[in-house]
Amino acid sequence: MEDIDQKRCPECSSLINFGAQKCPFCLSLQTKHAKQKVWVTIGVPMLMALVFFTFMLKIPNRHHNRFTDYTQKVQISSSEFHIEKKEEGRVATVTGTIRNDTDLSWTHPNIEVQYFNRAGKLIDTVTEADYQLRLSPHTEQAFKVHSTPSRPDSEYASRKIFIRYAEDANRFNLW
């Protein structure tokens, strides 16, 4: 008959002390303490991360700048357009440079290319965000936009290129 101060280990069925954290025979953690260990090793770091990110979101960032306030100073300075025939089909490519005349760094520019026919009518639009591109202050940076043309090559007479959006590279700095 089992003593009141003892229980059976769920792993090896050996008789062990009721308050044992580990079975002395098979060394398995007992259920009550195993749950506590999981909470300490997984739950506490997750809780700390949640508190940290909640805190970060509530701190107003004094260095956050809106791109819309700087669109006139971040412009396309040159561009070229060509359509290639590749194995996978036709590919329209616009390459060029972006000039950043601000004192700020910008990341992830969203570049829009509008294509026009000979009559000046808008025939196609492509928007692409370049997540690798960083526009440093007072520099020019190369860019490239690929797309699949929706019309015959001869219809593409001209283009206009805009930077619709970019993120302040210092948006997460707290100092």
Rg over alpha carbons: 31 Å
| Helix content class | 10-25%
- Average pLDDT reading: 85
The CATH superfamily of the largest domain is identified as Immunoglobulins
Distance between the termini: 69 Å
Task: Give the CA-based shape.
Answer: elongated
Strand segment count: 9
- Tell me what the CATH architecture of the largest domain is: Sandwich
| Poorly predicted ranges | none
Number of helical segments with 4 or more residues: 1
CATH C-level of the largest domain: Mainly Beta
- Number of separate structural domains: 2
Describe the largest sheet.
4 strands, antiparallel
CATH topology of the largest domain: Immunoglobulin-like
The SSE string, one letter per element, is: EEHEEEEEEE
Estimate what percentage of residues fall within beta strands.
35-45%
- Tell me the quaternary state: single chain
Secondary-structure-based class equals alpha+beta
